[in-house]
């Protein structure tokens, strides 16, 4: 497969757009990826209530959360078909060198998360509750079990395709990788705000602030590794494994409580 475009090596992305227009387009994509999933989840709540499952966040997470994630992927695919973007997928199996980046990316991400966690403790910030943890409060095995499958095979691939492949790729064309990574990382973090809102957290709390900073830092790491390896599969694996480890730890803690 060509490294120039994703699944369409004969189509070259246009590069005549201005940086300002590229930023506006990227912001529009990021906004759509935040608002559309939230609307779907809220709509799913109304539908499930008609079937006698109103207020059941486990059902909302499994059904609405799945549809919301798929929607992000559809937004990316739709945009790509209208305006092709360079998405690097030279191979589906990482090389030994790329595997080293996978290990490094996971390690650096967890070190950053630990340091931010220490900062939260110093400032007595209360860890926020997101959509997943709220949904798992009553049925942890069901929700975390589904989430474990989802983060490995759905969330990681779709989010990396959209945020790193489409949006970062779009910005890179006009601005270079550093500004592209910065803008995408801010958007990636803010895109998780609805998750904390659905989870019932105070969006103005220090806990949510630290959580969003942690997500932004992870995005910077993923964005940098993507640019370094030029292989979307590498960051998909990193993203998926980080989430899978976090979900597994949450499940173990819930079972031991």
From TrEMBL:
Keyword hit for Membrane: yes
Residue ranges crossing the lipid bilayer per the database entry: 21-41, 61-80, 101-123, 143-163, 175-197, 203-225, 232-255
Top EC group: hydrolase
Keyword entries, A-Z: Hydrolase, Membrane, Transmembrane, Transmembrane helix
GO biological process, one term: CAAX-box protein maturation
GO molecular-function terms, A-Z: endopeptidase activity
Listed InterPro entries: CAAX_protease (IPR052710), Rce1/LyrA-like_dom (IPR003675)
Superkingdom of origin organism: Archaea
EC number(s) on file: 3.4.-.-
Span of domain CAAX prenyl protease 2/Lysostaphin resistance protein A-like: 146-245
Protein's name according to its UniProt entry: CPBP family intramembrane glutamic endopeptidase
Species this protein is from: Salinirubrum litoreum
């Amino acid at each position: 497969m060509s490294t120039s475009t994703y699944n369409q090596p004969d189509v070259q992305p246009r590069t005549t757009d201005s940086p300002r227009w590229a930023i506006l387009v990227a912001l529009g994509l990021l906004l759509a990826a935040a608002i559309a999933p939230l609307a779907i989840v809220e709509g799913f709540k109304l539908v499930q209530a008609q079937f006698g499952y109103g207020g059941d966040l486990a059902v909302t997470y499994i059904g609405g959360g799945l549809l919301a994630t798929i929607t992000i992927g559809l937004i990316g695919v739709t945009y790509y078909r209208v305006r092709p973007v360079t998405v690097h997928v030279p191979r589906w199996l990482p090389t030994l060198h790329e595997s080293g980046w996978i290990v490094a990316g996971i390690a650096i991400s967890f070190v950053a998360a630990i340091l931010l966690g220490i900062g939260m403790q110093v400032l007595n910030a209360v860890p926020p509750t997101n959509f997943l943890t709220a949904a798992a409060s009553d049925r942890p095995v069901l929700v975390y079990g589904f989430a474990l499958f989802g983060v490995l095979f759905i969330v990681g691939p779709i989010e990396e395709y959209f945020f790193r492949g489409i949006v970062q790729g779009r910005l890179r064309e006009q601005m270079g990788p550093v500004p592209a990574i910065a803008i995408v990382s801010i958007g990636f973090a803010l895109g998780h705000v609805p998750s904390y809102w659905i989870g019932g957290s105070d969006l103005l709390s220090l806990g949510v602030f630290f959580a969003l900073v942690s997500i932004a830092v992870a995005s910077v790491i993923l964005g940098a590794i993507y640019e370094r390896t030029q292989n979307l599969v590498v960051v998909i694996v990193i993203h998926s494994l980080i989430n899978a480890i976090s979900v597994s730890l949450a499940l173990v803690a819930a079972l031991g409580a």
